[in-house]
Amino acid sequence: MSVLRRLLKFVAPYWKRYALALVFLLAISGLNLLQPMVIGWVVDGVLAAEKYDLLLYAGLAIFGMAAVKGIIQYLQRFNMAYAGQKVVFDIRNTLYRHLQQLSYSFYDQAQTGQLMSRVTSDVNAVQRFLSNGIVQIVSTVVSFSATLILMLSLNWKLTLISMVTVPLLLWRVKIYSTKVRPMFAQIQEQVAVVNTRIQENIAGQRVVKAFARKEYELEKFERDNMELLQRSIRAERLSAINWSLMRLLTETSLALILWYGGRQVISFELSLGTLISFNMLLGQLLGPIRSLGWIVSMVQRTIASGERIFEILDTEADVRDKPGAKPIGKIEGRVTFDNVSFAYDGVNMVLKNINLDVAPGETVAILGGTGSGKSTLIMLIPRFYDPTEGRILIDGIDIRDVTLESLRRQIGIVTQETFLFSASIRDNIAYGKPEATDEEIIEAAKAAHIHDFIMSLPDGYDTIIGERGVGLSGGQKQRVAIARALLMDARILLLDESTSSVDVETEMQIQQAFSRLLKDRTAFIIAQRLSTVRDADRIVVLDNGTIVEEGTHEELLELGGIYTAIYNLQFRPQEINFLGDDEIESVFNQGGGN
Amino acid sequence: MGHHGGLDTDDIDLKQVDFSHIPKLVEFIVPFKWHLALALVMTIAVAIMGTFGPLLIRRILDVDIPAGSIEQVTKTALTYLLVIAVIELLRVAQHYMMAWVGQNMLFSMRYRLFSHLQDLGLDFYDRIQAGRIMSRVTSDVEAINDLMTSGILGLVSDLVSLVAIVVIMLRMNTKLALIALTIVPILFIVVWTLRTRMTRAYHKVRRRAADISANLQESISGMRIVQAFSREDVNAERFVETTYRSFEAQMEAEKLRAMFNPIVDMIAALGSALIVYYGGLQMSWGDPAITIGTISAFLNYMTRFFWPIRNLVDMYNVVLQAGVSAERIFEVLETEPNVKDKEGAIELKDIEGHVKLEDVVFGYDPDHPVLHGVSLEALPKETIALVGPTGAGKSSIINLICRFYDVQEGRVLIDDIDVRDVTIESLRRNMGIVLQDTFIFSGTIRENIRYGRLDATDEEVEEAAKIVGAHDFIINLPDGYDTEVRERGSRLSVGQRQLLSFARAILADPRILILDEATSSVDAYTEYLIQKALVKLFEGRTSVVIAHRLSTVRNADRIYVIESGKVKEVGNHDELVALGGMYKSLYEKQFTDVIAAENGDDAEGVSSRSAGVAEFNPSAEHGGSS
């Protein structure tokens, strides 16, 4: 229930429209009651009484009432839709803003598809409730009670007789929400299973063909497909029976009214017009009961969707500006790790007591096996995560004391997976600095050795890339990402070199772009290339979350430790035979990475 | 409860729908023709009987009550109930029958499509995006179902009830009926105009909703970059723009929707007013054809016009959608597989593993060959490596050996048998094919390895994993071999996925191994594992490898340097280096890094043997495959 109350908070700004819609709704309910009464009056007061001079007024009354009702109905629906859509608009944008604040730790866990469905389908479910549901509920209650009162006042015996079927009707409504609806939900689940099966088969078609597995795939598919068939037929059958029974019960009430009312008319206890009015009012009495099942399930769905929405909104960002955080201002670029330890889950330390002081302009290459903590180390600098213990200083200032935005604006990042957006190349390069001039963008592209390629495209810098546009090769993407980082003109650079391979020429161009990028900046590089390692001012070797070796290429080779082992493996694969398998495994296994 | 929203039609130009494919759907109906006929009979019965209700009520009002016979009132009321009960019974039967036919049709259509997709060649998958193929099996089939079940029967039912109502009204009171029916054309025109405008408006709503999804999809998957570049505010603004456009589109549609029912109600009320007015006039004239019961029945029938008319109008859209969907479904079903078993193709039994290409000419587009007379050979248990720049034709060669495509000229021979003379299945059963993009099916690790040989025991699966060095990481996963993995599951690293696909191949134990070495980089230890696994894979079988690793080319029995669809150089590593040709220059370019190191001031770093980075990768063709 608290979910509904919280949803109402989003409704609050539009309470006037809701109130208006409600007033209109009450008016409609009133008119709905009036309509059968008018017909009854026409039958008794005009036709049976043979007052044919009133005929014109009767006709006008019938049409006039419908016209008034129609206008009010339109106003009511329009206001409701407007308010409901506006609320959804607000919820969506609130969610979006909140999602943008959530930290990396959240995105490590979350699945894109699930987040998507919360912002799209869950919000839609809530919208259906807010723009139709609330009104439906009110209208159901109002029209049921008003109709009941009117009918009782007209003829209480006939009213009670017409309600004989209500308990049975309620029972079928219950069947609907406990049995029929869940069956349709199960169909949807099976549809998802079948779709996944198809999608996987299409995506894996090369493997299917390579292993000649057609029969096997067909068998699996037929099983899922058959299950879908059976579930569908079962659900359709039950649903058909239920609907028919409900209709039959309503019609039974009608038959009862005709039977008992007919006797009353004969014995002059009831007028013919009233009997006809009753006939028409019956629908307004039983309709709401029939829609109960629908209402209950809608409220259930809304609560479930609301819960999922609030689950996101209630998630606090791990990394936030602390109160009174100030912009960091222009920095020199000294980065200091002061006894930093870090655990993603707060328990298992991924980094342990890291101490590192990097002077402005220095280039640090970071090496280590999988799980040694390389990426984690550099992720702490822009505060994608906060250290569990210790602190990180930039120019001697604890980074938790400054605003996130001012900090991140000073840091350029080229990640391992170059993520580009479906937008023009220009927009992609200017991603971190949307106000950049064309000259600045071109300069950055030139420095990243991608300008010539961009100019060779039909639309130059306006070429749309990404899913809906031109596909770029891995090397081209990477150079766009480098241009993007260059344009930031950041004092500190974080690079992840461990990229998928590109051809020789691209490789050389990327190297050149990198060296341009590194000049005069503090840089942390997760190194993959020999040249990077050799040219670095300092090499830091991580193992199992601690710095095990530190120094220049020459110094470390002399040391003959883990760096030498990695060097031999990674850069000289054909030398494997020089090291025994046991030696290699022991070098890596002490890291515990695998 | 329609599914009209399901299609991911970008923007069908509804005026250019080609209906010629709809008749072909008959073949899917034929197996169910008797069920369908029965359902049709029941539908007509329900539609006709449905008009009896108001007649019986009129009888009570006009005959039984004035006659003052309680007995007759009771009798008619009971008859009424009986009629309704029969109608509902028929309705359940009809609904069930229809659901049965519809669902079975869906089932067979899906199965046919899926089965045909298994036969289609890779050219088809290269040409059409996975998402588009997907929507043909799902939403297009769904649209056809709408046409078949709710559509056809709905049409019959609606037409029958419309005709029945009109006939009854005319017979009861011709003049009154004609007056009342004047509103039908008005109703039809209004419903038509509003519904078509609504359809268009909702198309727009759906497009705007798709924009929101696209924006979200990108924002969420790129959130790390968003935050790294402090783009939150700009992006939030853009999102507001997107959602606002969606809001506007929604409101446009909502306005029409809010208008629809009131207008229809007003027209119906106009009809009712006419009935009361003219009926009353008839009564004042003392016309014997008019009674209060007749007027009541007319008022009752008036409300029944609306649904059939609305359904008929909506039917138009269903037919349009179905026309588009049928076209797309048959486009798939009528695509011929590019390679097929020929008549009398033989089973390829136990083979030695002798692979041979003789003067092969091939092009994906026959007018533009990519291979111009390639000949190469791998003797049983030999390993041959293919190297060369992007687009040289290496992948085409292995595609031909696996018979994913057929040659235009020349022959591909396995143990001196032309691959076109044997069944595709037996050919591929003798081959282990390990491709670059290692594909993981959702399921357990065990199931994924077992894909190589379905009847393998658990021990055999684990044995295979041990051979390729995957066992250690597998048993360290939470559920070991029973750990659930997914296609895009981030649980497994690139290297681990590769080891799994090796295990799959080892389990299949093929005589011939076709391998396209993956190029994405992995950490040093995994690289070490992969290199070790490769040695095991090549052992004791014929291997054809698109090589990227220095260790692979160095160990190959023969290296074929391919360029522009021709074999340029043949020999082993030492021979080719000594030759001083293309191989040597490729090799040197790739390892400039190391060569520079050798010439540098570093005294002890590198031995005089040529050192190189982990990958021998003279091409960029797979650059985007990360």
Give the helix/strand layout:
The complex is a heterodimer of chains A (594) and B (626).
Chain A: H1 2-11, H2 15-48, H3 55-101, H4 104-109, H5 112-154, H6 156-162, H7 166-203, H8 205-210, H9 214-266, H10 272-314, E1 335-343, E2 349-358, E3 363-367, H11 374-379, E4 389-394, E5 397-398, H12 404-409, E6 411-414, H13 425-429, H14 438-447, H15 451-456, H16 474-487, E7 492-496, H17 504-518, E8 522-526, H18 530-535, E9 538-543, E10 546-551, H19 553-559, H20 562-571, H21 581-589
Parallel strand pairs in A: 3-8, 3-9, 6-7, 7-8
Antiparallel strand pairs in A: 1-2, 1-4, 4-5, 9-10
Helix pairs in contact in A: 2-3, 2-5, 2-10, 3-5, 5-6, 5-10, 6-9, 7-9, 7-10, 9-10, 14-16, 16-17
Chain B: H1 26-29, H2 33-49, H3 52-67, H4 70-119, H5 122-127, H6 130-172, H7 174-181, H8 183-221, H9 223-228, H10 232-284, H11 292-302, H12 306-333, E1 355-362, E2 371-378, E3 383-387, H13 394-401, E4 409-414, E5 417-418, H14 424-429, E6 431-434, E7 443-444, H15 445-450, H16 458-467, H17 471-475, E8 484-485, H18 494-508, E9 512-516, H19 524-538, E10 542-546, H20 550-555, E11 558-563, E12 566-571, H21 573-579, H22 582-590, H23 592-599
Parallel strand pairs in B: 3-10, 3-11, 6-9, 9-10
Antiparallel strand pairs in B: 1-2, 1-4, 4-5, 7-8, 11-12
Write out key terms for the chains shown.
heterodimer, A: 594 residues, alpha/beta, Rossmann fold, six-stranded mixed β-sheet, four-stranded antiparallel β-sheet, 64% helix, B: six-stranded mixed β-sheet, 12 strands, 60% helix
Quick structural summary:
Chain A has 594 residues and is α/β, with parallel strands linked by helices. Chain A has helices spanning 2-11, 15-48, 55-101, 104-109, 112-154, 156-162, 166-203, 205-210, 214-266, 272-314, 374-379, 404-409, 425-429, 438-447, 451-456, 474-487, 504-518, 530-535, 553-559, 562-571, 581-589; strands at residues 335-343, 349-358, 363-367, 389-394, 397-398, 411-414, 492-496, 522-526, 538-543, 546-551. In chain A, helix 2 (15-48) runs antiparallel to helix 10, helix 9 runs antiparallel to helix 10 and helix 14 (438-447) packs across helix 16 (474-487).
